[in-house]
Amino acid sequence: MYAAIEAGGTKFVCAVSDDKFNIQARTHIPTTTPSETLGAVFAFFDQYTIEAMGVGSFGPIDANPASPQYGYITTTPKLAWANYDFLGALKAHYAQVPIAFTTDVNVAAYGEFKKGAGQGKQNVAYYTVGTGIGMGYIHHGQIYMGSQNPEAGHILVRRHEADTFAGACPYHGDCLEGMAAGPAIQQRWGKKGKDIAPNDAAWAIEAYYLAQACMTTTLFLSPDVIIFGGGVSKQSQLFPLIRSQFTKLLADYVSVPAADDYIVPVGLGDDAGITGALLLAAEQL
Q1: What is the pTM assigned to this prediction?
Q2: Which coenzymes or cofactors are required (predicted)?
Q3: CA distance 277 to 153
Q4: pLDDT in tens, 122-180
Q5: Distances (CA, A) of 207 to 80, 107, 241
Q6: Residue 122 DSSP SS3
Q7: Angle at 162 between CA 221 and CA 127, to 5 degrees
Q8: Is 61 left (phi over 0), alpha (psi -120 to 50) or beta?
Q9: Distance CA 122, CA 60 (A)
Q10: Which domains does the chain have, with CATH numbers?
């Protein structure tokens, strides 16, 4: 069986599948301390004969195999997990099991590339917009990785003319994440996105920032498609607004596919990450 872990800052999603990627069992485990959370993770997986495992982790993480801290969760604000050897703990328990390790957004990007809205494409940008904003990039069929994982959630953005919100990012204030992630929406408007009416002017401001992310991604990476997942992107009314703003900002400077085909919602819904992790597990064999 293949094993998958989508390790989030709030919960771990763990699943096992057969060799056709049919999920046989799944569980959600609260993210508390490493010993408590991983104890429950091991108890779940120990029920099965695991051939390989794929892991997508919250971070920041060190996902560079050449680094001495490869597999560590590094400067996370979740202090119990800061500078924690996550991959090492998994390998210690499953010494004979090959393990793929990358970011949570990378496994979601890979799932979408293989089984979701990125099928048939070679260069796929995937943004998750929720508690934070992260991006994974599939470059000619492979997960892109530099010396560190790209942190596109912290690119700088131009402020909307009607927006006086200072920004919610503790590092940069009014970066993309600071202006457009879930906490920014809640702090700016006094309520969560799910409680804001679809026709509220708040969404035009949100779309403006996400359209800038699409423009920057287009100019730097030239993807075949840009996919949005995460909680905020479940707001379907956002997509026409993002596409319209993106088209205006880009001003026909470079050629891209039709906006309706280029900027799209996630195809696998909440299963993008776990699907990608299972696919990476299979590739370890």
Answers
A1: 0.95
A2: Mg(2+)
A3: 22
A4: 999 999 999 899 999 999 999 998 877 888 999 999 999 999 999 999 999 999 999 99
A5: 35, 25, 6
A6: coil
A7: 25
A8: beta
A9: 26
A10: 2-106+271-283 (3.30.420.40), 117-267 (3.30.420.40)
